[in-house]
Amino acid sequence: MVKINSIKVSPSLINTSCAWSSNLTQLKELYDSPYTGAVTTRSATLDGFPETESNTVAFTRTTVSTINSFGYSPHPLAQYLSWVETILTTSDAPKKPFIVSIAASDPTTLRTMVQTIQSLRTKLNDTPELSTIAIELNTSCPNIHNAPPTGYTFPSLLPLLTVLKEEYAKDESLTIGLKLPPFVHRDQFLAVLDGIKDLCIPGEGDSVKCPFAFFTSTNTLGNSLLFPDQTDGEETGEFAVPTALGGVAGDALHALSLGNVYTFSQLLNNPENALLKGISIIGAGGVTSKEAAERMRKAGAAIVGSATLFGKEGVRAFEIIAGN
Ligand SMILES: Cc1cc2nc3c(=O)[nH]c(=O)nc-3n(C[C@H](O)[C@H](O)[C@H](O)COP(=O)(O)O)c2cc1C
C-alpha cells in the first residue's frame, strides 16, 4: 500500500490517464479489477474538448508501442465527476481512489474545476485520513494545436500552479499531482523542482508544506512520427495517424521514462530539495510487463502506471504486469 497525502493506493499499480479510461464502462472495469489500486480518468476540461476523426491511436507491429493524436476528452469534467460518484457509491468492489485528470488553460477555469471536485469530495465525506479523489493536472499533452505542453516551459505554468496552491492551503487533504512530459536534460527537471519550491506554504512551527503530493512521469513523447507499415492496422493513409505527428508511448518510450523517474527520484532525495521530499513518483512509460514494472520501481517509482498495454489487452494488462 502506498499513501500519497490523503489517498491510499493498493496494489501500487494503476492505469494512467488515456483514451481507454474515457467512459463509464471503462472506468467501472478499471475500478472493479483487483489488480488496480486506483483509477485515473482521461484528461477532462471544464466544457469538453472537440474531437475529430484525426484524433486517433495506432499500435505498432513489432513492439508494444503506440502513437496517438488525441487531445483532451470530449466529455466535460462534470460528466467524469458524475461517473466517479456513481461508481464510488454503487460498486461492490473494495474502495479505491480516483485520480481525476484535468486540464485548463487559465486560472479562473482551473479554480472552478478544482472547486467542483472539492464539492464532490465533501459530498462523499472525504477525510484527511482517507480520500476517494485526487487531482492530476495534465501539463504535458503534446497534441493540442497552438498550445505546447506547459510542463516544458515551467514558468508559464505558475499561474495555474498558484491556483492549486491556494486551494490546497484551504484544504490540505486535497491530494494534487502533476502529469509531466518526458524531459531530456537535467535543467528541465531542476526548473520543475525550483518552480515548485517557491509554492510551498508554511506548516506548523518551522515546517513547510508542499501542495504537490505526486508527479506522474512521463506523458507521451510528442512530435513523433510512424508510418503505416510500422503499425498493426490496415496500411491506409500516408502516416500512422492522420496528423502525421503524435505522441509515442509504450516500449518505444520506456528508456526515456525510466531516466525521467530515476532523475526525479535522485533529485527529490537530495538534501538540497528537502522541502519536496514528500513527493511520490508514479512511473509510467513502457510498463508492458512485470519486468518493466520492476525496472520502474528500481528507478524510483512508488506506484507504476500503464496506458499502452491497457489499450492493447484491456484490464487484463494489470494482471500481466502483476505477474499473474
Ligand atoms: C491513446 C492514449 C491517450 C492518452 N491520453 C492521455 C490523457 O488524456 N491525459 C494524460 O495525462 N495522458 C494521456 N496519455 C499518456 C499516458 O497516460 C501515459 O503517460 C503514456 O502513454 C506513457 O505510458 P505507456 O507507455 O504505458 O502508454 C495517453 C496515452 C495514450 C497511448
Automatic annotation (TrEMBL):
Recorded GO MF terms: dihydroorotate dehydrogenase activity
Biological process, per Gene Ontology: 'de novo' pyrimidine nucleobase biosynthetic process; 'de novo' UMP biosynthetic process
Biochemical pathway: Pyrimidine metabolism; UMP biosynthesis via de novo pathway
Cofactors named for this entry: FMN
Segments traversing the membrane: none
Pfam family of the protein (one): DHO_dh
Keywords attached to this entry: Flavoprotein, FMN, Oxidoreductase, Pyrimidine biosynthesis
Entry's Gene Ontology cellular component terms: cytoplasm
Domain Dihydroorotate dehydrogenase catalytic: 23-321
Protein name: Dihydroorotate oxidase
